[in-house]
Amino acid sequence: MTFADEVKNAVTPRAALLVIGVLGLQLLFITSYVGALHKPKPTDVPFGVVAPRQMSAQLITELKNLPGGPLAPRAVADATTAREQILNREIDGALIVDPRSTTDTLLVASGGGAAMADTLTKIITKVDRTQQRTVRSVDLAPASNQDFEGLSSFYLVVGWCVGGYLCASILAISAGTKPANRQRAAIRTGVMALYSIVGGIGGAIIIGPILGALPGSFWGLSGLGALTVFAVGMLTLALQALTGIVGIGLAVLIVVIAGNPSAGGAFPLPMLPDFWRTIGPALPPGAGTWVARSIAYFKGNAVTGPLLVLSAWAVAGTLVTLLTAMRRRPDSDNGTA
């Protein structure tokens, strides 16, 4: 047998295509992570300004015209309203100008991302210095001292997502790579649901009682974990049902390659390039990270939209998985699935 024949036997055309696909995923992984995170720069950060009327318009114009457009400033009625908007996650920070003093107050929330709080402090300190004024920062939702840089929420959600697609992948290839028959699809969905509940509770136990990395509702985080794991798992099963083993790679593409760097974990969304800040909220890692931080530091505020995103992935994945199985001919149920 010639060497060429040995190569053909060792690497089938199907295997060669899969290897090329893996290479593509590898290059996309590098492109996505480096592209999103190599040069974080704030752009159009929602920012409140509390100042006397005669000063407000001028200050907003000055902040709006900063080089690079880091802030999207807006007038806020008073300090109380500014605090409420930050805790409701409507704005990322606010400057309160005291005309009777040369010291202003900057409100931030490092629980939503320490990188954003630090960046806002640097920007406003520089602006105030040009006006011969100083600024003091007040952190309304400080990250736990066990939560370095406010990253624990992100890593928690990443772990849930990894568990979701790995569990689904194992279920999908346990008896072959063809779409499951009706019974197997229902059983796999049930197993995925049970695994999600256990995974959600397990993650909440580790991040809370064991490590003390995140405050907030234990059961709130457990529920979020169950929904996140189930959404990613059913997405993976659905893609596998539609495309076979390629579906597992597609799940990695959506969740890991596109989802993780755009989640607002290492750097909050307003610090990411336009493409990633646009897709992030629509993908499971981004939606999950937002909700985890809200539960931990913002009294569970502003979670409806992200929870609907996770629910939509879960429902769509479940429907596609079950409907694909139901469309198979009865005589194909005895085949490999």
Tell me what you see in this structure:
The longest helix has 29 residues, at 182-210. Helix 7 runs antiparallel to helix 8 and helix 8 (218-243) packs antiparallel against helix 11 (284-297). The chain has 337 residues and is of the alpha/beta class. The protein contains 12 helices and 5 strands.
What is the strand and helix layout of this fold?
Blueprint: H1 3-10, H2 13-37, E1 45-50, H3 53-64, E2 71-75, H4 79-87, E3 93-96, E4 103-108, H5 114-130, E5 134-139, H6 152-173, H7 182-210, H8 218-243, H9 246-259, H10 274-279, H11 284-297, H12 304-326
Parallel strand pairs: 1-2, 1-3, 4-5
Antiparallel strand pairs: 3-4
In short:
The protein has twelve helices and five strands. It has 337 residues and is α/β, with parallel strands linked by helices. Strand 3 (93-96) and strand 4 (103-108) form a beta hairpin.
